[in-house]
Automatic annotation (TrEMBL):
Keywords: Cytoplasm, Protein biosynthesis, Pyridoxal phosphate, RNA-binding, Selenium, Transferase, tRNA-binding
GO (cellular component) term, any one: cytoplasm
Subunit structure: Homotetramer formed by a catalytic dimer and a non-catalytic dimer serving as a binding platform that orients tRNASec for catalysis. Each tetramer binds the CCA ends of two tRNAs which point to the active sites of the catalytic dimer.
Pathway assignment: Aminoacyl-tRNA biosynthesis; selenocysteinyl-tRNA(Sec) biosynthesis; selenocysteinyl-tRNA(Sec) from L-seryl-tRNA(Sec) (archaeal/eukaryal route): step 2/2
Location of the protein in the cell: Cytoplasm
The name this protein goes by in its record: O-phosphoseryl-tRNA(Sec) selenium transferase
Alphabetical list of SUPFAM superfamilies matching this protein: PLP-dependent transferases
Cofactor(s) essential for the protein: pyridoxal 5'-phosphate
Family matches, as InterPro entries: PyrdxlP-dep_Trfase, PyrdxlP-dep_Trfase_major, Sec-tRNA_Se_transferase, SepSecS/SepCysS
Residues under site feature: May act as a substrate filter by repelling compounds with a negatively charged alpha-carboxylate: 74
Enzyme nomenclature, EC number: 2.9.1.2
Residue numbers of N6-(pyridoxal phosphate)lysine PTMs: 284
Length: 480
C-alpha cells in the first residue's frame, strides 16, 4: 500500500481508520529505511510482521515475481513446489553472478539487495563482537572447511610457487582436509604442553619457516576456537612472525564470534602483525541451519579477491537465514546471548568440577579456553572399553556434544597419520571428556548434562568396582 492507495481507501473506509493504518505501516517502513541507510544491525529486534513485510518487498523486486513476466532463459527462478517457494520467501535467484558471488543480478534486484545488506549487517556484528578494525566480509554458502579452502585457492594466485601451509595441530578433520583439498601440503606443528593446556609451539613454527623458506609457504593456518585442553593459538605472536617473513595468515575462527577472547586475539593479531582473513561458521555462532560461513578480513581488496574466486552463483539461503536471525534478535539480543553464554560457562565449569571430584577425577586447568572444558577420566583408563562406553551411554541418554577422548588413538587423514588423535597431541597424559558452553546453551542443558553424566559414571563404576577397590571406594562414598 502506497500513499495513493491509502487515499483511495478513504473512499471505502473511514478516513480516520485508514490514517491509523497508514501510520502503523509507516512504523514498519521507518525501521526498513534506517536499515537501508545505515546497513547496521538494528539495536532492538524487529517483529516477525516487519521482517516478513521487508522480505516480501524484496521478493517483488525479482523478475520471477513480476506480474506478466515472460522468461525464455535456462534459469528463470521457476519453482515447481509452492512449499519450496514459501520456504525461500520467493527469493529464488540466489546471489551473485557466474563470475562473482558479490555481483548484482539484473534479474534479481531484491536478492542482490538482500546479499549486500546481509554482508553489511554481519560486518557490524563482527565489530560489535570485538574485531572493530575488520574492513570487509561476505557470507558464503559453504561451511567452514570449504570456506578455508577458498581462501587458500585465492592465495595461490598471489604465491604461485608456494606448496606448504604451516598448521599448529588441531584435531578436526575438516581443517586438515581444507588444505589438502586446495592442493597444498600441510606442515603439522605439534603443540607444547604447559600445565594441562596445549599451546602453540612458536619455536617450532619459526624453525619450519627457516627450513622451508618463506617463499615456499602459502600461509600460516591458525586456530582460535577449539576443544580443551587445546587452547586458542598465540595469534599475536604468530601474526608478528607472519609480518616479519611476509607470509599470509589465515585464521580458523569457527565458533569464535561468541567468545570475546577469540575476537580480541584476532583484533590484536591484526594490530601488531598480519592476519589476512578469518573464517567463521554461521550455524555455530548464530543458531541457523548448517551450510554457511563468513569470510572476513582487514584488507577490503583481498576479501573481494576471495569472493571473486567463488565459481558461479550461490544459494541465498544462508544469507537469508542469518539476516532474519539478526533482525529478530537485534544487536541487544545478540549481546544478551553472548553474555548468557559466558555466565553459563562459569556455571558449567563449577558443576563439572564438583562432579569430577566426587569420582576421583578433576576438571583440567585450561583457563585460556573460553568455550570448551575437559574433565579427566584417568580412573577409567585401566578398564578396556570403559571410556568409549561412557561416550555411548551419554549419546543414548540424549547428551549430545559431549565427547570422550582416549589415549593413543591413531587416525590417518589424506595420508597423514595423527597419533593421539582427538587429543591434539601425540602423547597427552590423560583421557578426558569434553563439554562446551556454546551460544544458546541454557541452565537446563547444564543441569541435565550433569545429572545424566553422574548416572553414567555411577553405572560404570558399579560395573568395574568388583575388579578395582579404588572404584568401589568412590561408589560407596557417592552412595553414602
Amino acid at each position: 500500500m502506497n500513499g495513493e492507495n491509502f487515499c483511495l481507501s478513504e473512499k471505502i473506509v473511514s478516513s480516520s481508520y485508514v490514517r491509523q493504518g497508514s501510520q502503523a505501516r509507516r512504523g514498519h517502513e521507518q525501521l526498513i529505511r534506517v536499515l537501508l541507510e545505515q546497513g547496521k544491525c538494528p539495536e532492538e529486534g524487529w517483529s516477525e510482521a516487519t521482517i516478513e513485510l521487508f522480505l516480501n518487498e524484496l521478493a517483488v523486486m525479482d523478475s520471477n515475481n513480476f506480474l506478466g513476466n515472460c522468461g525464455v532463459g535456462e534459469r528463470e527462478g521457476r519453482v515447481a513446489s509452492s512449499l519450496v517457494a514459501k520456504r525461500h520467501y520467493r527469493l529464488i535467484h540466489g546471489i551473485g553472478r557466474s563470475g562473482d558471488i558479490a555481483a548484482i543480478q539484473p534479474k534479481a534486484a531484491g536478492s542482490s539487495l538482500l546479499n549486500k545488506l546481509t554482508n553489511s549487517v554481519v560486518l557490524d556484528i563482527l565489530k560489535l563482537a570485538g574485531v572493530r578494525s575488520a574492513a570487509s566480509c561476505f557470507v558464503v554458502p559453504m561451511a567452514t572447511g570449504m570456506s578455508l579452502t577458498l581462501c587458500f585457492l585465492t592465495l595461490r594466485h598471489r604465491r604461485p610457487g608456494a606448496r606448504y601451509i604451516i598448521w599448529p595441530r588441531i584435531d578436526q578433520k575438516s581443517c586438515f582436509k581444507s588444505m589438502v583439498t586446495a592442493g597444498f601440503e600441510p606442515v603439522v606443528i605439534e603443540n607444547v604442553l604447559e600445565g594441562d593446556e596445549l599451546r602453540t609451539n612458536l619455536e617450532a613454527v619459526q624453525r619450519k619457516i627457516d627450513e622451508l623458506g618463506a617463499e615456499n609457504i602459502l600461509c600460516l593456518h591458525s586456530t582460535t576456537s577449539c576443544f580443551a585442553p587445546r587452547i586458542p593459538d598465540r595469534l599475536e605472536e604468530l601474526a608478528v612472525i607472519c609480518a616479519k617473513h611476509n607470509i599470509p595468515h589465515v585464521v580458523n575462527n569457527a565458533y569464535g564470534i561468541q567468545s570475546s577472547k577469540c575476537m580480541h586475539l584476532i583484533q590484536q593479531g591484526a594490530r601488531v602483525g598480519r592476519i589476512d582473513a578469518f573464517v567463521q561458521s554461521l550455524d555455530k555462532n548464530f543458531m541457523v541451519p548448517v551450510g554457511g560461513a563468513i569470510i572476513a578480513g582487514f584488507d577490503e581488496d583481498f576479501v573481494e579477491e576471495i569472493s571473486k574466486m567463488y565459481p558461479g552463483r550461490a544459494s541465498a539461503s544462508p544469507s537469508l537465514d542469518v539476516l532474519i536471525t539478526l533482525l529478530t534478535l537485534g544487536a541487544s539480543g545478540y549481546r544478551k546471548l553472548l553474555s548468557e553464554r559466558k555466565e553459563l560457562f562459569c556455571h558449567l565449569s563449577q558443576e563439572l568440577s564438583a562432579l569430577a571430584q566426587q569420582y576421583g577425577e578433576r576438571l583440567l586447568h585450561t583457563p585460556h579456553n573460553p568455550i570448551s572444558l575437559a574433565m579427566s577420566l584417568s580412573s577409567l583408563q585401566t578398564h578396556g572399553g570403559a571410556i568409549t562406553q561412557l561416550g555411548s551411554m551419554l549419546f543414548t541418554r540424549q547428551v549430545s556434544g559431549a565427547r570422550v577422548v582416549q589415549m593413543g588413538v591413531e587416525q590417518t587423514i589424506s595420508g597423514h597419520t595423527f597419533r593421539g588423535f582427538m587429543s591434539h597431541s601425540e602423547s597427552y597424559p590423560y583421557p578426558y571428556l569434553n563439554a562446551a558452553s556454546a551460544i544458546g546453551i541454557t541452565c537446563d542443558d547444564v543441569a541435565l548434562c550433569i545429572k545424566r553424566l553422574d548416572k553414567c559414571l555411577k553405572s560404570l563404576r558399579r560395573e568395574t568396582a568388583g575388579t578395582d577397590k579404588t572404584f568401589c571406594k568412590y561408589v560407596l562414598i557417592k552412595e553414602l
